[in-house]
Amino acid sequence: MSASSLVIPMMSFAARPLAGEAKVPGDKSISHRALMFGALAIGRSTIEGLLEGEDVLRTAEAMRRLGALVTRQEDGRWILHGRGVGGLAEPEDVLDMGNAGTGARLLMGLVASHPFTAVFTGDASLRSRPMRRIVEPLSRIGAGFVGRSGGRLPLAVIGTASPIPLTYELPMPSAQVKSAVLLAGLNTPGITTVIERQATRDHTELMLRSFGAQVDVETLSGGGRAISVTGQPELTGCSIKVPADPSSAAFPVVAALLVDGSHIVVTSVGTNPLRSGLYQTLLEMGADITVANARIEGGEPVADLVVRASALSGVDVPPERAPTMIDEYPILAVAAAFARGTTRMGGLAELRVKESDRLAAVAGGLAACGVRVEIDGDDLIVHGDGGPAEGGATIAVNLDHRIGMSFLVMGMAARRPVGIDDASAIATSFPGFAGLMNGLGAKIEKI
Ligand code: S3P
To answer: What is residue 121's three-state secondary structure?
Structure first.
């Protein structure tokens, strides 16, 4: 039985001032990609700092089922021996991707240009998420699909033996859709191009280059960029060092800002500019965050974040910033509830199709905790009075790890404790969350 099938109610009580140094687990986006690309490379790849959360472990298992040799050493390094581009094998059974949208969508792209059929499924959250956004472009390269209405999982991808190179403009800013098309392009002769009007996280592009693929990025005169991958490269095994996940670091960072007297350091956090929108926004709100020891590790920028408790003010967060902080709106909304004044977060349509409908979950949860909050079209508006929010509610998580962690942070600084009905989903991205936060000064307990 996986941990996610056990229901774990949790309660977060007022924290004492947070103090100390913390290292959050490895970046989820980078971890998925490292496993996939290592499985495609010739020779040996090593991954240091892989996120050993349930989402990523599902991808590791899927890569094994597709024929790669994937092992974990005692020192925590992961070793892969890949199959070469185009060399994946038909899986003998259904690939269960659990809660992982990134794992499912990127892998669907990868297998679409292989001449076999693979069947994907996932948990109730993943089975409810839209896959048409993947099915549509991958059908154009020649793959077939049999799925539920809306292209939902369980879904069979009938890969094609003669994929057609595609030029595809993304209808929504999505690094998952961009990556799925580019990965299908790896085993496609010729050049596959994705046009994105708003830049999204570029880990696929950066890491494919480290493995030896040719990836060209052109800035377009009308705004946006065209990303092209040259098909059928020989990828060579390499070493990947995974930075700490900025999306996970967001939880101790915001907690330290909100709990009076706190002073913490979160180490080796990824600072890729296409992931840094939350940090920019918090600085605009008056957060005392210092970026120390900025350096490049394994091709990605990282730094230590020094955070002190701060009085925050409401700001307008422009819709253009959304792709650089798409996973951080739940925790930003919690910060906004403690800020003085109104925070308007614009352009959040994509939040409705995450692990849960996050727009509804955040607004409902904040309202239950006594915060004045509105949804206006695709905008979320939070009114704070500069004092602690009331709290005192139990929030339904609906298999959404980031909703769970956001409201546990809320409980650390609210007047009354905040509970969540089920913390099990937290293990998808942040195993050890409660222990790490408690080590800094939180009081988060199973109930
Ligand atoms: C991810 C892209 C984003 C993000 C997700 C991880 C990725 O999803 O929300 O957590 O690793 O490419 P979308 O592409 O749907 O925006």
So the answer is: strand
